[in-house]
Specification:
heterodimer, A: mainly beta, globular, B: alpha/beta, Rossmann fold, 5-stranded parallel beta sheet, binds flavin-adenine dinucleotide
Chain lengths: 202, 250
């Protein structure tokens, strides 16, 4: 459809460098995007654990202390929320999913991340291994705030940020793709911001 | 819960602004005539796209203020002075102008009578917009779901849809309307005069045993604070549906 010009609208332009870093339909914010459907859960660290579960039921689990002993990485990355906010150069620390999924990657083609509060989201295995995704527990050098997904959230910077599930508690391996929470409500199964895959059918 | 996307309905639409209603000193409603519009569910939003002469575009989300049972689509926009899109929509759009938008979007923050009652609607500022659609839909479809509507704004001037909501409350004993004004109150004000807190919610928010369906909408700090209090009071987190309008701090 050809665009209708909005009479007299000028808008706020980004610099060419910013524009290059912004996926289509996104705009830059200094603030922090928040998208969640329900109240923020507060899981005490003593009650927190993280699981990886294969389709045959085989599983592995870390409590908070054990999780803290895993190799950690610092990640500086741009993030893109489907509500059209993008934020540049966010700094996180976390454990790579390569570490957490070691010994499990042959058990499925997809994962379903599950979270406190009942939230879920689906991802292809190929997207989460290879140094591209993390379970992050600090943001900007501080423990991750509950509002932003603490104690720990998934960090999948190359997809829209709803895939970076907050309050994550584990990963279930799947042999077939299944929709998670927002995917069930009409959001895209994959969610690539550079192809503007916001909603079903995009 | 069933998948609730409406395939084929979510697309770019164009509608002409037929009427503009100044709701408050800083908020306006745009009433749109959208040929072929296939309807929406109360609580859904659209993504409005503005295009400059040179092709530059800016897109923002706006809740649908009208009820599904209304004839015309309505959006209500609060102006943020340093904003890119909202000042244009509030101050520059004229009747007859076309507006492009994607929608209807969202399947979780929606109300339908089958959600069960009682119903609790809690709005902060412009967060009243999708809740107005729910309250209107409830009234237009003759639903008698017992409803309480708590609306927090800074001043009386800032209350959007005030006379309409008052009329709804006056004509329906199952619809209770409660205001709180957090910054200043006019002489003779009988509503609350503070931020929403646990005591207020204890008085207004039904009892957790009633298992109300709760819809909460407004700026992120507002909905964070209110939802924490609702959960602390014993309300079931899975019955609390939240729409966050803005960002949090830096
Ligand atoms: C699902 C959804 C539904 C929405 N429905 C409505 C609606 O019905 N009516 C309505 O008026 N708005 C609504 N909003 C907010 C709207 O999308 C825009 O964020 C808002 O109009 C500001 O856009 P802007 O371009 O004017 O400001 P921007 O240029 O985006 O921002 C300007 C400044 O204001 C800050 N800011 C942005 N949004 C807010 C906010 N909501 N509160 C406080 N500060 C903010 C920014 O951080 C920035 O500093 C909704 C948002 C969402 C996600």
């Amino acid at each position: 459809m050809t665009n209708i010009i909005s009479r007299g609208f000028r808008g706020r332009r980004q610099s060419p460098e910013e524009a290059r870093r912004l996926p289509p339909g996104q705009y830059l914010t200094e603030r922090f995007p928040v998208l969640s459907a329900g109240p923020t859960p507060h899981t005490p660290l003593t009650a927190w654990d993280f699981s990886v579960v294969a389709p045959n039921g085989r599983s592995k689990q870390w409590n908070w202390q054990e999780f803290q002993t895993l190799p950690r990485e610092t990640i500086t990355t741009d993030i893109h929320c489907v509500t059209r906010w993008s934020k540049f150069d966010t700094v996180w620390e976390g454990v790579s999913l390569d570490t957490l999924l070691a010994g499990f990657v042959e058990d499925g083609q997809f994962i379903m991340a599950f979270c406190d509060g009942g939230y879920t989201t689906n991802l292809p295995i190929a997207d989460v291994i290879g140094g591209k995704t993390w379970i992050a527990d600090t943001y900007d050098g501080q423990p991750l705030e509950a509002e932003h997904g603490g104690p720990a959230r998934l960090l999948v910077p190359h997809l829209y940020f709803w895939k970076s599930a907050k309050w994550v508690r584990g990963l279930r391996l799947l042999t077939r793709d299944e929709p998670g929470f927002w995917e069930n409500y009409g959001y895209h199964m994959y969610g690539d911001p550079w192809r503007e895959q916001r909603y079903q059918g995009d | 819960m069933a998948g609730t996307a409406l395939p084929g309905r979510l697309k770019w639409w164009s509608g002409d602004v037929t009427q503009i209603v100044r709701e408050t000193p800083t908020a306006s409603s745009l009433i749109l005539n959208v040929p072929g519009w296939l309807g929406h569910r109360a609580g859904q939003h659209v993504d409005v796209r503005l295009t400059a002469e040179d092709g530059y575009q800016a897109v923002r989300s706006y809740s649908i203020a009208s009820a599904p049972a209304d004839e015309q689509l309505m959006l209500t926009i609060e102006r943020l002075d340093d904003g890119e899109v909202s000042p244009y929509l509030v101050d520059d759009v004229r009747p007859g102008d076309p507006l492009e938008f994607l929608g209807p979007i969202g399947g979780y923050f929606v109300w339908e009578e089958e959600m069960g009652g009682p119903l609790l609607l809690i709005a902060g500022g412009s967060g009243v917009v999708p809740l107005r659609a729910m309250a209107r839909q409830r009234a237009l479809t003759g639903s008698d779901v017992p409803t309480r509507f708590l609306y927090s704004a800074r001043t009386a001037d800032a209350l959007i849809y005030r006379s309409e909501l008052n009329a709804l409350a006056a004509s329906d004993t199952h619809f209770q309307l409660v205001y709180t004004l957090t910054r200043s109150q006019p002489p003779g004000w009988t509503g609350y005069a503070r931020r929403v807190d646990a005591d207020m919610l204890r008085e207004v928010a039904w009892s957790p045993e009633d298992n109300p369906a709760i819809y909460l909408c407004g700026p992120t700090p507002f909905v964070e604070a209110v939802s924490e209090q609702l959960v602390a009071l014993g309300h079931n987190p899975t019955r609390i549906r939240i729409e966050r309008f803005g960002p949090t701090g830096v």
